[in-house]
Design brief:
There is one protein chain. The chain is about 45% helix and about 15% strand. The protein is an alpha/beta fold. It has one domain: Spore Coat Polysaccharide Biosynthesis Protein SpsA, Chain A. The strands form two sheets. The protein has a seven-stranded mixed β-sheet with strand order 3-2-1-4-7-5-8, sandwiched between helices. The longest helix has 17 residues, at about 130-145.
């Protein structure tokens, strides 16, 4: 009988054949370094009806593939979580690269009992003035709230207790999940955890497409759209987060 894994890494993916192999290379290294052994980490690719070789690549690399048809990122993450057998769930985007000590760090934080959930944080693959100012905008929010990006992790029972990702949200579902888990942990004297030595390497493909200054303008545009043109919100979200650009 095969023992249940300690961790389940869930990768939501739609048409990610360009990026997925590089992520899986880093996942294999982190699994090999995991003190619980590589078999204690299962890898699930939640395939959002890709039309390229994403699912085939995942299967060839030994990942479990779960097909999710709903075109909402929260639903895709939830679909992977439902198939997971690990005590701890971890979520990472397909265009990210993870640190070799990712699983050891997550396991140690969760074993401490002081952490309800958390994220590894990220570092950027390059830097510019526009990117630096974008970071400067977000870092105080991270310090104040404890909500970070990168590889997001929590216990499966706690994920289920808060209802998982809100699949009615077309964006910011990851932020809501961490706030939901933070509230759950507060009642038990637990906090959100952040790693300092196992940060993921974030993709900058949105910045490569739209420019290094675009995100600051995006925030202003989003607030204006939701306040004054709510009827245009869905188009704005679809254009930025869901339109396929490969």
């Amino acid at each position: 009988m095969t023992p249940s894994p300690r961790l389940s890494l869930i990768i939501p993916a739609r048409n990610e054949e360009r990026y997925l192999p590089d992520l899986l290379d880093t996942v294999e290294l982190a699994r090999a370094r995991f003190r619980g052994g590589p078999d204690a980490v299962e890898v699930i690719v939640a395939d959002n009806v890709s039309t390229d070789g994403t699912a085939q690549i995942a299967r060839q690399r030994g990942c479990r593939v779960v097909t999710v048809e709903k075109r909402v990122i929260g639903a895709v993450r939830n679909g992977g979580a439902r198939a997971a057998g690990g005590e701890i769930l971890a979520f990472v985007d397909a265009d990210t690269l993870i640190h070799p000590e990712t699983f050891n760090t997550i396991d140690a934080l969760m074993a401490s009992g002081r952490v309800v959930a958390g994220a590894t944080g990220v570092r950027l693959e390059r830097m510019s003035l526009g990117l630096a100012l974008t970071l400067a905008f977000f870092l105080p929010l991270v310090w104040i709230t404890g909500v970070d990006a990168g590889v997001v992790f929590c216990r499966k029972e706690d994920f289920d207790a808060v209802g998982g990702y809100n699949d009615r949200r077309s964006f910011a579902e990851d932020v809501q999940l961490l706030f939901d888990l933070k509230r759950l942990g507060r009642r038990r004297g637990q906090r959100l955890g952040r790693t300092r030595s196992a940060k993921a390497l974030a993709s900058l493909r949105k910045f490569d497409t739209y420019g290094d200054w675009h995100f600051l303008g995006l925030i202003a545009r989003g607030l204006w759209t939701m306040a004054w043109r709510p009827h245009a919100r869905d188009h704005w979200v679809e254009e930025y987060w869901y339109r396929d650009r490969r």
